[in-house]
Fold:
Amino acid sequence: MQADTHTGYGLAAGRWLFTLSTGRPGSRALWFALLVLGSWSAPLFASDPARPNMVIILSDDHSLLDSTVYGSKEVQTPNMQRLADSGMTFDRAFVASPSCAPNRAVLLTGLMPVRHGAEANHTRPHAGIKKLPAYLKELGYEVVAFGKVSHYNYTADYGFDYFAHDKFHEDVAIPEGVKWLRARSSDKPLCIFFGTNWPHVPWPATPEGYDPARVTLPPGHIDTPRTREARAKYYAAVTRMDNDLGLILDAARQVLGENTFFLHTADNGAQWPFAKWTLYDAGIRTPMIAAWPGKIKPGARTDAMVNWSDILPTLVEVGGGKPPADIDGKSFAGVLRNGKRKHRDKIFATHSSDGQYNIYPARSLRDGRWKYIRNLHPEFYFSTHVDLVQAEGYFGSWVDKARTDPAAAAVLQRYHQRPAEELYDLRADPNEQKNLAADERQAARLKAMREEVTAWMKANSDQGRVYGKPRLLDDPRRDEPPPQAGKARPGANPSPRSF
Structure:
């Protein structure tokens, strides 16, 4: 409707300007004002046939290194590789928070969690915030979502024109979305989001061809047969995600044509110790690949640092609009189109909680080489679904091995008990195994990064809120699983506590 209105206005304005230019009723000042008005309003409302369709594909709990695109020789992701070969791979893309709801709200608002309000997992952002679909609708787009795009029940809050299959592991979402796309008849430009639940747990019941004996465990993990079996099942889940990606790519290219922008990324790291729910790179550094025939150089690679908050303004700019200035995100369209080498020089990230399973607020600052993590309450006992639910059954084998193996016991201690501050040299220690916070040679760097995080928190009114009742290190019942009712429920944002 906006496009039709604007077209009518443009024809009328054109006749008016012709009248003014011929000396009949009007003035030079009015003619100039109309010319400026027309040039300002056209990009916002015009129905431009050149606007690209946009296809955004989100995976769920997928760590960056677990794909062929990022160097894995074990897990098979041929469709990720196919997309990378046709576009640009980001080596330093980061989420704003390492759990689903807070970070997906970052994607859909362009705001950091402390500003959009969904700091804890399983919560929703403030109702009055303008969301991504609204920006794109103003540009004439139809905006739809299939699968886990926001956080399950909250999809309706975001203003999509249509959405479906947004429940937990509703794995028909991708084929049903492809079916919808093939049947679509609208001539409006389309932005379609696909959210696969893979490789989120529960992982497949079998390794589906992956050999547990041949998998490589991440540094800092405890090597047990059950861990290897779980790792192989996780790889099977990653390949299922990649299969979903292939279905989407094939259908979108057939239906939407060449002028289609693709973006594939993951919401946070995998559900493994020291990954999801943490601010280590395994939790916040995410795969990201963009492709756009004729606009993005095939096979390109960039080390420009981008944040998930940057996706919203980028999509607005790709769609022909002006990126909003009052959000945290900054468009990286220049990186995509012109090969701009730099975007951000620092990445801030936050984590708060996930129901009663994980209450461990932390903040981090990362530059090109160094990572600083502040654990706001080191007196808290770190726990997650991994150790409390043991959905894949391997964590119990870690506990068993730690009873007789000092190295395994040290891993468990590092997992549950964390210092107030952590500092890592990512060039020398990319897996963040050696904390340099107590190294006197790094005292000045530690102080500078500490002060920078403090200043960032103050500037964003980040009070370091604690959501829920934490487990304390000195509580003998600290490792007991919570009742299911302890999990935050949709529509019931937990109240912060003071400590």
